[in-house]
């Protein structure tokens, strides 16, 4: 009886901790999103804060998700040094993405199997890591630190290049570890491996979830906005033909994925002409790029359903079929700000920003590669809990079975954590610098969003981020060569009037 009481006590504690952890994360993200959507970045920062012990290093792995949110909030507030510091710590917490050995610690893997993935430290996506380097590059550029900006844009490009190899290594190592443990015919790993190779399990996943092969994905892993910014950065900062080639390669990759965008095709053509020598850089008019980061990025939702599992029926090793629940994460789109931004120069004509890429497709491209690992952990967890439930029933009867069932039901959860400061999508436009040095930005309703001053310099980037229509747009006007600090304003202006402009697409 004492043993039974202990088992129920352990089950109760695990269930309580699992439920508290999920509830705490939901509450934190609700507070963050409420403030973030209205542009109240100070309150959003408070929502993702955490206690720091003076004189002690920050546990960057445990606080990775908070650091990602903090880094972007600092950047949008113009606190560039604090932004890069937070992102530096976030990179420390993502160091597993740069290592050959991608399997997590034994303790974390055990927690993921016994409870669920959300009990592990947050495992960032490679696309999130690429964006960290891009945002750091923009923060350094805004602070006038071109040397460090160059390093970060190159790091973003390097992560993109190595991503596919990382995905392949991740799945291969997980599979190798599982197969090694499955050599023991009486082990849970043997059951997991057997079930993962079951056609009936994959049929159940296809019927109740969705087939990753049917997702709308990019032809290769890339974060197009990061690759695009890498390209225009090296147009502005080319030290020779190799840098122009680098710009041309990046911009062509993005243009090839979006043939409908005139601005992407024109940028790729410009970079190619500079690389080949057909365009003299000294004769190029001062250029202004407007990059519009728009809306709220996708978030994870949970899908629960039952799958057929083969389990040992007796000590002789015979198998029986049983149905058991699993929970898988699934991305859902969040709203974007409608339409585009109009960019008006001295002529009074509005050049509209054009679609560059959306975050949902980027993430699904990555998740398609990583889905076998997600499914393997979910099935492993289901097998272990099913075995525990059967053993509890054998040893302790109905009470044991009931306790194990409560444990399984409460802890079968998908990991729904994610970086919620990412956008729905990006847009871009390029214009010659107006002689007046003033560009007017027009919102999606045709009203003046605001006016920005464009300094007399060869290359300017106007970076606009607007998560929702309920909050302002943050507009950062920066020298793409990093020779001077950026200006940051929140738009729209307090009083705006309809713009008297014609539209040019």
Terminal-residue CA separation: 77 Å
Number of strands: 13
Total number of helical segments? 13
Series of secondary-structure elements, N-terminal to C-terminal: HHHHHHHHHHHHEEEEEEHEEEEEEE
Low-pLDDT runs: 1-8, 100-114, 494-505
Largest sheet: 6 strands, mixed
Tell me the radius of gyration.
26 Å
Question: Can you describe this structure?
Answer:
With 505 residues, this protein is of the alpha+beta class. It has one domain. It has 13 helices and 13 strands. The strands form three sheets. A six-stranded mixed sheet has the order 6-7-1-10-11-12. A hairpin with a 6-residue loop joins β10 and β11. α1 packs antiparallel against α2, α4 runs antiparallel to α6 and α11 packs antiparallel against α12. 43% of the residues are buried. The N terminus and C terminus are likely disordered.
